[in-house]
Specification:
- The complex is a heterodimer of chains A (about 575) and B (about 400).
- Helices cover about 50% and strands about 10% of the residues of chain A.
- Chain A contains 22 helices and eleven strands.
- In chain A, strand 3 and strand 4 form a beta hairpin.
- In chain A, helix 1 packs antiparallel against helix 9, helix 2 packs parallel to helix 5 and helix 7 crosses helix 9.
- In chain A, the strands form three sheets. In chain A, strands 7-8-9-5-10-11 form a six-stranded mixed beta sheet, sandwiched between helices. A three-stranded antiparallel beta sheet of chain A has the order 4-3-6, covered by helices on one side.
- Chain B has two domains: about 200 residues, 3-Layer(aba) Sandwich (Rossmann fold), CATH 3.40.50.2300; about 130 residues, Response regulator (Rossmann fold), CATH 3.40.50.2300.
- Chain B contains twelve helices and 15 strands.
- Chain B is elongated and about 70 Å long.
- The chains are: A alpha/beta (about 575), B alpha/beta (about 400).
């Protein structure tokens, strides 16, 4: 292999990593070409000449300048665009990259379209050293709470938020990482190709980087390297095997690309065996508690955890929740029942902060949901499941639960980078904790399977395990038994009972009235957004308003004859 | 089923990798053999005799890195045709044969650099690349390896200043524009002109600089200098101003995208004086898109199909016969590039890189399709530029 191919594989891989950095968090950005251009041009203009300082020191100064400029550009672009999603973010960042290119073409100091001449300093050894450092960074990033939080945001942003992940901060930091890595690419490119021209950072460059990251595998750290090696060597291989120069070569390259994407949707990296976080044997015996976070307000038994007064939520003319008063005391198990459309899910969304109330005052564990960000409410100790499972489908069951433990695990990424033993200990502790939570719901033997491949009932239980992993002060279960068969529902009922017996505060929405009657201390009945009854299970069964709401008046109240009024 | 497909994909990926390693090894061995040959063993590339009598046993390896795909593909294809025709013509001559390898750089600096690097291992001389920016990125590799380069389409300043192994047969803007100004001044009796240029494009801005100094040298009065953006499409306001200045001609440095609306609107506004354009105007699209309005536009070029001369007539006929259409300037320059290399090889009757380099430096008054061509001390080509005027929908030489 010639020198230039080696260098370009490394350079392309570094550029692909700048796409990987945001793709792992589910962000599609095309602005990396702009970061690279800014980094490369600034470094080439400001760094001392290699003849004055020596080649390597000059390059190192350039790299520092380029990475800082790239990261700063990412902050500047990221702050106004972080609320954009999917293709909108892609277009916004593409606009940025084009603006940068136009700016550089028209600036005096860049030499305009004719470019800037830069001494060649980069050798294959330098390029591969830089690549190794970048790849190392992302390798260490993967199995940390930071890396898992990014993956969770990619898989399901709302669920990640509800698990206490500060989505905005994580997305921005992923974006800044992308900016720094792209800046590094820009500098290395500048110091290798001799002539730095704005057209080297055009739309096609950005697409190349994106394609390499995706073809390699955008969820596995080795992916960008594989993608870059593949995409860089295909033209060389075609040349070497004697395919005639001309249109046939890009045609074959594109066809190969198509084949890879069709047959390997996970990218080339899916050919490699996937390493999963495993719960080590005996991990569950590791009884050291996880760190519950010092910011969390402790609630004594009997003190109110949730206080809602006059809570309302309107959607246009529809009053989903109307003037609801609700108090949940610590250690209580409160059931929330009512016919379909009664506003139960809206009420728990209000309590967990997912939707802001139209009026009324909400106090949950010292936070004000609706005004306090969702992840802050979660960090205060509110953990929940969703009516329709919101798991992270491409993460394993154990990884799902590990994301649930986000608010009670200590950040380990920076310590992992330098192999501090404390990081490994902390990770092991969280894994053991997660394994216990899985075991608790009876999924210990499924820990390595993708959440998306689990059966429906198992997915519901996994969601409960994920919520438990946050060591919640308030656990909200939104129809946990929906879709379960009789046996599964029975086991779940036992599980909730045992959780309640441990003194956990639970707010339970359930249609399985039998389960509610057995497990709840108090039941609140909603109909058309209003509380129509509240009291002990015995009082509720006898309440005529409840009977009316459920069965239209004549029939006996729920729970008397059937365990499963659905 | 899924498993089968996965293993199929895996197998083919493996096969590709293996092929890659295999052919890479093969390539290296080939390069070594080539290296031994250039060392001069067993006759090799050093021949006997000189000039037309020169006989070299082995084929002289020539590499051409052209943009056959990507943004500059239309230029690269013309160049490829010109080179292939030249190789064919040279093959008919006795004594020296050429092993011409044309490679695609995909208008991508990465591939350009890689191709040049590979060529330096087993080629005696390299032609290309197509674009000037690519040239600055790739040609230093040949310079460092001691392999001479012949640039066939680069017009930027500083190409040959990169090193003593870099030559070119293409004229620079600075060579064409002064002649354009000189010939037009004589032809139309110009005394005062208005200059317009787009100031946000490096190419047109450097073109303006050359125009400005040429106008000064020729003693022409510049009544007004108007600037526009390369993205502009409406020039009526500027043209009204230019018309009011009552100049003998309007000099424009702009890209073809600006040239077409500018020329059309000028004629609409009743400006009948000649419009003199830079290299951006040297494009058949000017006639096809601007139509009638393009009549009377003066453009400087390195080559014109209607240029007189036996060689050019033969070239036109041969090209037409081989490809079924007329060549353009890129094909003519590429054709000339290989012909000049032949001249250099025969001078010392050697296909060694060093000998070709010396030979290229000594090219004087060679008859080519571009006219009588010499390589000057700066390793740039010197030959008469063609000043052409659009007449009857075609570029016609003025000089």
């Amino acid at each position: 292999m010639s020198e230039s191919i080696l260098v370009f594989i490394a350079l392309n891989a570094i550029f692909a990593y700048s796409f990987y950095a945001v793709l792992v968090a589910g962000q599609l950005s095309l602005g990396q070409a702009g970061f690279a251009a800014l980094g490369g041009f600034t470094a080439a203009a400001l760094a001392p000449a290699p003849s004055d300082l020596g080649e390597l020191p000059a390059l190192l100064v350039g790299i520092v300048i380029g990475m800082v400029v790239g990261a700063l550009a990412a902050v500047v672009l990221g702050l106004p665009t972080m609320h954009l999603r999917g293709v909108f973010l892609a277009i916004a960042t593409l606009g940025f990259a084009e603006a940068v290119r136009i700016l550089l073409i028209n600036a005096e100091w860049t030499g305009g379209a004719n470019g800037m001449s830069v001494p060649k300093v980069v050798t294959p050894a330098i390029a591969w050293t830089c690549l190794a450092l970048v790849a190392y960074w992302f390798w260490r990033q993967g199995p940390t709470s930071y890396g898992r939080a990014l993956a969770a945001i990619r898989e399901d942003e709302l669920a990640a938020r509800a698990m206490g992940v500060d989505v905005g901060r994580h997305r921005l930091s992923a974006f800044v990482t992308a900016g720094a890595v792209a800046g590094l690419y820009g500098v290395l490119w500048a110091y290798y190709v001799r002539l730095l021209a704005p057209e080297d950072f055009s739309f096609t460059t950005a697409i190349d980087g994106l394609v390499m990251a995706v073809v390699g595998g955008s969820t596995v750290w080795i992916g960008p390297l594989l993608g870059a090696a593949f995409m860089t060597s295909v033209p060389e291989i075609l040349r070497a095997v004697g395919v005639e120069a001309g249109w046939i070569r890009p045609f074959i390259s594109s066809a190969l690309l198509l084949v890879v994407i069709i047959f390997l949707p996970g990218g080339l990296a899916s050919l490699l065996p996937r390493l999963r976080v495993k719960a080590p044997a005996g991990a569950m015996e590791d009884e050291r508690p996880v760190d519950r976070g010092s910011s969390r307000k402790l609630v004594g038994p009997g003190e109110p955890v949730v206080r809602v007064s006059g809570g309302s939520k309107d959607y246009g003319g529809v009053h989903a929740v109307r003037d609801v008063d609700l108090t949940v005391a610590s250690g209580e198990v409160v059931g929330l029942i009512g016919p379909n459309g009664a506003g139960k899910t809206t009420l728990v969304n209000l309590i967990s902060g997912l939707v802001p109330p139209s009026s009324g005052s909400f106090d949950v564990l010292g936070t004000t949901p609706g005004r306090t960000a969702v992840h802050k409410v979660a960090q205060a100790g509110v953990s929940r499941t969703f009516q329709h499972s919101k798991l992270f489908p491409r993460l394993s069951a154990l990884e799902n639960v590990l994301v649930g433990a986000h608010v009670v695990s200590r950040p380990t990424f920076l310590r992992r980078l330098v192999w501090l033993p404390g990081a490994r200990r902390d990770e092991a502790r969280v894994v053991a904790h997660a394994a216990r939570c899985l075991d608790r719901v009876g999924l210990a033997d499924r820990s390595g399977e993708d959440a998306g491949s689990l059966s429906y009932g198992d997915q519901r239980r996994l969601e409960i395990a994920r919520a438990l992993a946050a060591e919640p002060s308030l656990l909200i279960l939104d129809e946990p038994a929906a879709g379960m068969n009789h046996v599964e529902a029975g086991a779940l009922s036992e599980l909730i009972g045992s959780l309640a017996a441990e003194g956990l505060t639970i707010l339970l929405i359930e249609h399985n009235v039998g389960m509610v009657m057995r497990t709840c201390d108090r039941i609140v009945v909603l109909n058309f957004g209003e509380v129509i009854a509240a009291g002990t299970p015995e009082e509720i069964i006898e309440d005529p308003a409840v009977v009316e709401a459920y069965l239209g008046g004549d029939a006996p109240p729920p729970g008397h004859e059937s365990e499963e009024v659905r | 089923m899924n498993r089968t497909i996965t293993s199929l994909a895996l197998t083919s990926a493996l096969a590709l990798t293996l092929t890659a390693c295999g052919s890479d090894d093969g390539g290296d061995t080939g390069a070594d053999a080539g290296g031994a040959a250039t060392g001069g063993e067993a006759g090799g590339l050093v021949g006997t005799g000189t000039g037309d009598d020169c006989t070299i046993e082995e084929s002289v390896p020539v590499g051409a890195a052209l943009s056959l795909t990507g943004a500059a593909a239309s230029y690269g294809e013309s160049q490829q045709k010109g080179l292939e025709l030249a190789a064919e013509k040279l093959g008919e001559k006795d004594g020296v044969t050429y092993d011409l390898t044309i490679e695609d750089d995909g208008t991508d600096p990465r591939q350009g650099i890689t191709v040049f690097e590979q060529f330096t291992q087993d080629r005696s001389v390299i032609i290309g690349p197509t674009l000037s920016n690519g040239a600055f990125q790739a040609q230093p590799i040949a310079q460092e390896a001691g392999v001479p380069v012949v640039a066939i389409s680069n017009t930027a300043e500083g190409i040959t200043a990169q090193g003593d192994h870099i030559f070119r047969v293409s004229l620079t803007e600075a060579q064409v524009i002064p002649q354009t100004v000189e010939v037009s001044t004589e032809e139309f009796g110009l005394e005062k002109v208005v200059v317009m240029y787009s100031n946000d494009d490096a190419f047109t801005e450097s073109g303006y600089d050359v125009f400005a100094s040429a106008l000064e040298d020729q003693g022409l009065e510049v009544l007004d200098t108007l600037t526009f953006s390369k993205a502009d499409t409406d020039f009526r306001a500027l043209l009204t101003e230019a018309k009011a200045a009552d100049a003998d001609a309007i000099v424009v440095s702009g890209l073809i995208e600006a040239a077409i609306p500018l020329v059309t609107q000028a004629r609409e506004l009743g400006i009948e004086v000649p419009i003199i354009g830079g290299n951006g105007f040297n494009n058949p699209k000017l006639m096809s898109d601007a139509g009638e309005a393009a009549e009377g536009v003066v453009v400087g070029a390195a080559w014109n199909s209607a240029s007189e001369g036996e060689l050019n007539t033969a070239f036109l006929a041969d090209f037409e016969e081989k490809y079924g259409h007329q060549p353009d300037q890129f094909a003519a320059q590429a054709y000339t590039g290989l012909m000049v290399i032949d001249e250099a090889v025969r001078a010392a009757c050697s296909g060694e890189p060093d000998a070709i380099k010396e030979g290229l430096g000594g090219v004087q008054d060679v008859e080519t399709v571009l006219g009588t061509l010499s390589i000057n001390d700066d390793r740039d080509a010197e030959h008469p530029a063609v000043v052409q005027v659009v007449e009857g929908g075609a570029f016609t030489p003025l000089n």
